[in-house]
Specification:
Largest sheet: 7 strands, parallel
CATH superfamily: NAD(P)-binding Rossmann-like Domain
Shape: globular
Number of domains: 1
InterPro entries: NAD(P)-bd_dom_sf, SDR_fam
Pfam families: adh_short (PF00106)
Protein name: SDR family oxidoreductase
CATH class: Alpha Beta
CATH architecture: 3-Layer(aba) Sandwich
CATH topology: Rossmann fold
Strand content: 5-15%
Strand order of the largest sheet: 3-2-1-4-5-6-7
Distance between the termini: 21 Å
Structural class: alpha/beta
Length: 304
Amino acid sequence: MSAALEGKVALVAGATRGAGRGIAVELGAAGATVYVTGRSTRAQRSEYDRPETIEDTADLVTEAGGHGIAVPTDHLDPDRVRALVDRISDEQGRLDVLVNDIWGGENLFAWDTPVWEHDLDKGLRLLRLAVETHAITSHHALPLLLRRPGGLVVEVTDGTAEYNRDNYRVSFFYDLAKTSVLRMAFALGHELGPRGATAVGLTPGWLRSEIMLDHFGVREDTWREALDRVPHFAISETPRYVGRAVTALAADPDVSRWNGESLSSGGLALTYGFTDLDGSRPDAWRYLVEVQDAGKPADTTGYR
């Protein structure tokens, strides 16, 4: 994909870490100019209180071959988002790819806790961070994206539409947030398609994000040490895998065939032929249904 997106401009909203960082870096590796946003900077951390920053992400984008530009942005603040889009318009005059990856809810949900027992303030805060931010960003960014035909919007979530339809996801608030983002992609597809742009929902599989690796007490180079405790973690993938999925979509002249659809990194790898960094093609959502949820022993044969 080297130079496949040269001359293109992308905004990855929520690019501090995890999938957002992986997507930003892969867009950069394909030659794009990538604006990366988030609330954690070298000067100030968000409530996550983690070391990753948007400046670090921008540097990684540039090192990969693109042009990374970090813009501190709270996507719950419409004025800040408007100023961000105005800056992109002034500096580039175009926006070709919008990735809505804003989340911020990692510390706000409780597993298997019914809505009447869940902390209400945390649940409502999760919905604002995971849903309202996407709506605000799309409202302000889409007029710029629509200036040129062929624009792409990627709504990043957890779970395919099929999987989330059939399975309760963690808790009321988590389930609602992740399903809402899928529906946003569907609705945007109806609004953007007739205007020459494409919107999709996209999920990674079991992501080896910085937070997930820390949770298991491993690093990217030692992640397999966690398999004794969490055998199904064998199907996991790096954040760069979903980044390659976004890059493949952005470089596809026939990307409109996916408009309004729910997609996964593993499914798109089979279509476009890209791999994860280790050369494998993990197909996590098929594995979850056929192996993990079916109660079978962990075995990724035929799934990566």
